[in-house]
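Entry 14: structure prediction run for DUF3795 domain-containing protein. Input pasted below.
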Amino acid sequence: MQTLISKESTFSEGINLLLELRGNLFEQISSIIKTFPPVAFYQLPFGDGESNHNATLAWSLWHLFRIEDIVCHTLILHDSQIFEEDWQEKIKSPLITTGNELYGEVMVEFSKKLNVKALYDYCKAVMDSTNELLKSLRFSDLKRKFSCADKERLIAGKCVSDSDSASWLIDFWCGKNVKGLIQMPFSRHWIMHVEAMRRIKNKLCQEAKKGVDQIACCGLSCNHCFLTAWCGSCRTIYNTCSFATCSPDGVCPNTACCKEKGLDGCYECDELYDCKKGFYSLGKDTNAIRAMALFIQKHGKKELLKVLETLHKKKDFQKIQEVLGEEIEDGLRILEEIR
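Run finished. Output tokens:
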């Protein structure tokens, strides 16, 4: 991407690739916002420190998009930041700075105060605004540098703390040309912090699953699922399984049905074999999971886990469908044979 942007003949192609990258990264942010509970956004699972993952999810969002807003509007465009459109009041933030000066419990307390939904809306508005800037750039704009007056304007705006952990930002930004700012913060900064957010959310999921029953309501074994690294299972508040993420309010219909009926899982239901709810509505794509639930119905969870352990020792696979197939009876037969 950077190579494409560096050449006039491929500049437009590079910008389009950058916009695509930013769109893909923002989809990951949207998924976190949609599927994680409010408490997740002020947790500090990796503790205090100076790495990008030594942060809360809320702070990561705030920091990433405050910097982008400041650089895009105050530094490059010389106009008003998106933040000035009453976003401080909407987000309930006590700060206007980038947040570089916050660590540990101070960061946690700051994160607790934020309206995460409003923060997400602000992030989206900033991204859209920067995207418009990127689309408007010409190749000749890349060499534009910044002056002492630009630096003084940033200082006067008081959007960067004068603490040692933050004040260096102004010199850093003003020491670059527009091309350098496209690299940092408009692309690399996103990659760094979205990756850190992925680590944070995965850590929260793993911590939540400790000591929790790893058989999902649908009959799937979370410990044997290829998504186990980043899903907290439907038995915790960090349920980010693939079906939950595309369901209303991030709740899988199978889980909702079990809770409504007071069942531990679908395997306790008499309607299991012909059920068309949630995960089971996909038919042949998820009949292997239904087969596992039916196996539990007959032999129990512990017996299924033993069978799955044996299966994983014998075969290299990610999805259980690869082994149990698309038909319920075939799946049951294979499970019984291994038992």
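Notes: Residues 245 and 262 are 23 Å apart (CA to CA). Will compare against the previous run tomorrow.
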